[in-house]
Amino acid sequence: MSLKQEFELLRRVPFFAEIEASKLKLLAFMSERVGFDPGKNLVRQGDQADAAYLIIDGRAEVILETPSGPVVVATLGANEIVGEMGILGNVPRAATVRAKDRVIALRISKEPFMRMVREFPNMAVSIMQELAHRVELTNNQLSAALAELKKLRETAGIAA
Predict the structure, then answer these.
(1) Rounded distance between C-alpha atoms, residue 103 and residue 50, angstroms
(2) What is the architecture of the domain spanning 3-156?
(3) What ranges do the domains of the chain cover?
(4) Looking at per-residue confidence, does 52 or 160 come out higher?
(5) pLDDT of residue 110
(6) How many whole angstroms separate alpha carbon 150 and alpha carbon 30?
C-alpha cells in the first residue's frame, strides 16, 4: 500500500478529517501497515498502550476478560480505530481486540497520535464525541443486561 493510499484511508476517518493534508501525510508516513490472522490479538487487555490501530480491512472483536470468562462487547470493521483510549488516558488496555478474520490495520504510534491531538483541537473534540458515544452504548447495554437479570431473578423468585 502506498503512502498516498494510507493518507486517503486516514482522511476518511472522522478523527482525522480536519487535519491539514501535509500533517496527515506525515502521520501516514510515520504509521506502519500490519496484518493479523484470525484469532490473533491486535491488543491485549492489561498491556501498556503504545499505539492505536486504524482497521483498513477485516473485522476485529473487542473482548472484555471477566471473572466468568471473556465477553465480546463489540465488533469493529474498516475505517474504525481502536486503542486510542489507552493512549489518551495513559492507562493499560481496557480490552483485548482480536482479529475475527484477516485484519489489515495501520498502526499509529503513541507520540505521532498525541502530537495530532495536541495540534488539532477539532481532532480532540471528535475523539471525545466518539468516546462519549461508546460510553452511551455501553450504558445502554449495561442497562439492558441489568433489566434482564432483574427479570430472571423475579422469574426464579430470587430477591435482588
Answers:
(1) 19
(2) Sandwich (2.60)
(3) 3-156
(4) 52
(5) 93
(6) 50
